[in-house]
Specification:
The chain folds into two domains: about 200 residues, no CATH class; about 110 residues, Immunoglobulin-like. Helices cover about 45% and strands about 20% of the residues. It is built from eleven helices and ten strands. Strands 3, 4, 6, 7, 9 and 10 form a six-stranded antiparallel sheet that branches. Strands 1-2-8-5 form a four-stranded antiparallel sheet, with no helix packed on it. It is elongated, with a radius of gyration of 26 Å.
């Protein structure tokens, strides 16, 4: 095949992926557009701050949990990361839409999609939303790296105009153009199978979607109770919400202390929790446990130490702590 036919084939292949390039480009650019232009969600003190949504990923993130936890424990670093992440999404998306340095942008898509998949692939109340976005982003990014962009792109425009940089050896690898596909057949097969394997693995880990029992960690709220400390006058314990819908808090309407016969000897009802003293709540992350209008709100990924007064209880005896969600779900832990 001569060079002209090679060039024509490369441009045609790139053109065939035009719709994929535009949609993936808009998917990432629109995140920047929604988050900063339409409604600024990069201000930590305001509702809808993207850092709180990032905090939602933490409980069941795969592989990158230490990175997420470091950021949500350090609000200043988190804000810098959210701004940087938003700018990268904007650049990657815009480059794809324009078809400018397409293969470099496709590597950006691959990296962003990997972060989405590992961080939030477990979230999705109905259609495994984040998992689908992540795994399709991986496949789409890899495909765009192979195709580059064709006739309808700035890569093609600059090559047609004969700009000097388009003749450099690096340009086909970062922009568009002919790359040695004949020598890449093995690489393409192995990498494609690796993406498929990652799809099966994450689908199974997050959702049980390959074998066994299906599960969805975004359906029912789960609050873990730990680090219970009883000094006879105050009871301090840690609550950590690890499952449930990311857009809907767990609404705690009751905290009870039970004796050995399961009699309620101390009770805080929804009115008490709606007026719970802020100085008795110590939040660990940017997603905060806080009093709501009719209950205490525990967002997904929030972790906090709560302290309640138990000075009116006998110091001897075996007690049990019970938390009650508005849905009727209860979480119980023995008090040491």
């Amino acid at each position: 095949m001569n060079n002209n036919n090679n060039k024509h084939s490369t441009d045609t292949i790139g053109m065939l992926s035009l719709s994929l390039r535009m949609i993936i480009g808009w998917t990432y650019f629109s995140a920047f557009w929604r988050r900063l232009i339409i409604d600024n969600k990069l201000i930590p003190e305001e509702a809808g701050y993207i850092g709180e949504k990032f905090n939602h990923f933490l409980p069941n993130a795969l592989g990158i949990k230490p990175i997420i936890e470091y950021l949500v424990l350090n609000p200043d670093a988190l804000q810098v990361a959210m701004v940087a992440f938003t700018i990268i999404e904007a650049i990657v998306g815009l480059l794809l839409i324009l078809g400018l340095f397409t293969r470099l942008a496709s590597v950006g898509v691959f990296g962003l999609a990997m972060g989405i998949l590992l961080g939030s692939g477990w979230i999705g109340t109905t259609c495994l939303d984040e998992w689908q976005i992540g795994i399709l982003g991986l496949a789409g990014g890899f495909t765009l790296f192979l195709t580059g962009s064709g006739y309808y792109s700035f890569d093609h425009f600059f090559k047609k105009k004969g700009y000097a940089f388009t003749g450099k050896n690096w340009f086909p690898w970062l922009g568009s153009g002919d790359i040695p596909f004949a020598r890449m057949k093995g690489f393409i097969f192995v990498f494609s199978m690796a993406i498929f394997g990652l799809a099966l693995f994450t689908n199974q880990v997050f959702h049980g979607g390959v074998w066994g029992t299906l599960h969805n960690k975004s359906v029912r709220p789960i609050v873990e109770i730990s680090n219970i400390q009883n000094n006879d006058s105050e009871l301090t314990f840690e609550v950590y919400r690890v499952e449930g819908a990311d857009v809907y808090g767990s609404f705690l309407i009751g905290i009870e202390v039970l004796d050995e016969q399961n009699n309620v000897v101390k009770a805080l009802r929804h009115e008490d929790l709606a007026n719970f003293p802020l100085d008795k709540i110590h939040n660990h992350y940017v997603a905060k446990v806080k009093p709501g209008k009719h209950s205490m709100i525990i967002p997904l990924g929030a972790k906090a130490d709560l302290t309640i007064d138990i000075s009116d209880l006998p110091s001897t005896g075996d007690y049990t702590l019970k938390l009650i969600d508005i849905s009727g779900i209860e979480w119980i832990e023995s008090i040491p």
